[in-house]
Amino acid sequence: MPSRRAFLRTVACAAPAPIWRWEPQGDAGQAPRARYWVSGAAATGECGGCHPGARGLDRAHVHDRTAVACQLCAQRCTISNGHSGRCRARKNVGGELRSLVYGRPVAVHVDPIEKKPFFHFLPGSAAYSLGTVGCPLSCRFCQNWQISQAQPGDFDAAYMGPAAVVDAAVRRGAPVVAFTYNEPAVFAEYALDIAAAGRPRGLRHVMVSCGFMNQRPLADLCRVLEAVKIDLKGFSEDFYRTVSGAALAPVLRSIVQIRKAGVHLEIVNLVVPTLNDAEASLARLANWVMSELGADVPLHFTRFQPDYQLLNLPPTPVATLERARDMAMARGLRYVYVGNVPGHAGNHTYCPTCRARVITRQDFFVLESSLKDGRCAACGRPIAGVWS
What is the pLDDT of residue 30? Predict the structure, then answer.
């Protein structure tokens, strides 16, 4: 069987004309104005705003008056007129940063909340899930690379405003709207407006993110989100730099910020053979979660399946995931899971006190729950999470 990448390449070559078209309300100049950026035209002596750590620049330095510095994510792209940032979702148009993906989801589905995965947030709920193109990272193992690494013009994405998203979620009976599939930070403005429209109608909003954000936009998102799942992709700067094209420190900073904001938090670590599966690295990750976040934050060790640029690697041995889970629980973490292994005992939720199984799962579905008002039915212990 050909890979998805080979199939898409074959279809594109065989088509007599481009098979995807996208025109953001006519042209990029009409795309919505983005938030979280500063302009070269407004540059002052406060250099740290655009150049973190800089106290000042040489007096002879001349700013490009049409350049902008995006301050949404930790890449902190400086973007010249007519160009896009690394995420490809934000473009400098005449000295203003525009969002090319606002209102342009390319993936919309109703998923079980467990698919995100959220195991301690409204289990069994339906999540109206959407994503756009674009991502500030370039993970070699990305499972959604077709959209995360795409350009805004690669898909025919009809406009769907925030009110339309909320109407669709309510119509489908989904109590949760999930920002997911690509990196939601690149459509932060869209997510904020959806949440503003959805909250008065009783919807809750969650985000599935890489966590590579700056503090101000993340703070704005935390004010409207009920839950965040962060993909902590590894626990070394070298792994982030060479495999994801990013850095670890901003992700750790974001995770701590989310926890301090009181938003429900879950962590996923995709364990990739030979790249981030060393026992010492997994131990450092578990130690950090325990010391910085506490024993009640759910941690998922998830099985890698060959995809995108890492088709040469095998799936993660189940024994590796089991060792990681045992190690994390031995360090005091109470809710540690084995992901992407259907039927595994590590899919279920257990009471930390009496070890009774309180939630039974199969694949992405809850088969049985014995929680009573968020407590273990057997011993009465409160189970950390959002249950109603």
Answer: 84
Residue 57 has a pLDDT of: 56
**Per-position DSSP letters for 151-194, written without gaps between them:** -GGGS------HHHHHHHHHHTT-SEEEE-SS-GGGGHHHHHHH
- Burial of residue 30 (number of CB atoms within 10 Å: 0-12, 13-18, 19+): exposed
Q: What's the confidence (pLDDT) of residue 5?
A: 40
Domains in the chain with CATH codes = 22-100 (no CATH), 107-376 (3.20.20.70)
Residue with tokens 């790249």: 275
Residue type present at position 132: T
Residue 222 has pLDDT above 60, yes or no: yes
3-state secondary structure of 338: strand
Cα end-to-end span (Å), the chain? 44
* C-alpha distances in Å from residue 26, one per residue of 22, 82, 88, 101, 279: 9, 16, 18, 13, 52
Mean of all residue pLDDT scores within the chain = 90
